[in-house]
Amino acid sequence: MNVKFNNRDPVYVQVVRYFKEQIAKGFFEPGQEIPSRRELAHRLKINPNTAQRAYKEMEEQGLIFTEGNLPSRITKDEGVLKKVRKELIMEAVETFVHSVRTINVPLEEVLYIVKEYYEKADYVRGNTRD
């Protein structure tokens, strides 16, 4: 686990975001067991109470579930998983759109440039699209 903490946001919020990103990228599979709270705190070198708060937040959001004394797991709820992905995409789009609007780029030009770059990035990474 490689989390780079910033000084702006509470650490537990950054831990939750890390888990969301890993879920969206497919690094955490639905139903996958995740580290215990203590293990996470040790790995990330954070206070165990902070890890506990992050897990509590993730449980409240439905990202993880814990049954009895068993280890916590990533949700299997497809609706929650789709919501996480959409949330991350919307954050990125909002930031991008705000930046582009400040320099008054017409929408058609933005869409053309984004499509061109997106396809070029796929080609560079060796991905092909059907």
Automatic annotation (TrEMBL):
<protein>
    <submittedName>
        <fullName>GntR family transcriptional regulator</fullName>
    </submittedName>
</protein>
<feature type="domain" description="HTH gntR-type">
    <location>
        <begin position="9"/>
        <end position="77"/>
    </location>
</feature>
<keyword id="KW-0238">DNA-binding</keyword>
<dbReference type="InterPro" id="IPR000524">
    <property type="entry name" value="Tscrpt_reg_HTH_GntR"/>
</dbReference>
<dbReference type="InterPro" id="IPR036390">
    <property type="entry name" value="WH_DNA-bd_sf"/>
</dbReference>
<dbReference type="GO" id="GO:0003677">
    <property type="term" value="F:DNA binding"/>
</dbReference>
<dbReference type="InterPro" id="IPR036388">
    <property type="entry name" value="WH-like_DNA-bd_sf"/>
</dbReference>
<keyword id="KW-0805">Transcription regulation</keyword>
<keyword id="KW-0804">Transcription</keyword>
<dbReference type="Pfam" id="PF00392">
    <property type="entry name" value="GntR"/>
</dbReference>
<dbReference type="GO" id="GO:0003700">
    <property type="term" value="F:DNA-binding transcription factor activity"/>
</dbReference>
